[in-house]
Amino acid sequence: MKISKNDNKYIYVIVGKNIRRIRKEKGLTQVQLADLIQYNEGTIANIENSSYQTFSLEFLYVISKKLDVPMVEFFKDID
User: Fold this and answer.
1) Distance of CA 68 to the CA centre of its chain
2) 73 and 64 in contact (C-beta within 8 Å)?
3) CA–CA separation, 34 vs 36, rounded Å?
4) In the chain, what are the domains?
5) Which of these, 11, 12, 47, lies nearest to 39 by C-alpha position?
6) What is the pLDDT along the chain (79 residues), one digit of tens a residue?
7) 3-state secondary structure 4-24
8) Which residues 6+ apart lie within 8 Å of 43 measured at CB?
């Protein structure tokens, strides 16, 4: 899915890509991440693939704590 930087949903695309990057850097599969944060693995897949375009700051906070990364990491490369 191609979304313009001017689209309000652009942030979800960037955050999803950064979740994928961080998850892979930590050596986790989507299933492992889902188990770790107690979410459905389909949710993780949809967020990473930009087909799930709403999630909460609480969701990001949980991932940041479980993966031991600052929340700012999820917002890298946003212009």
Assistant:
1) 14
2) yes
3) 5
4) 10-68 (1.10.260.40)
5) 47
6) 567 777 778 889 999 999 999 999 999 999 999 999 999 999 999 999 987 678 899 999 999 999 999 999 999 886 5
7) CCCCCCHHHHHHHHHHHHHHH
8) 34, 52, 55
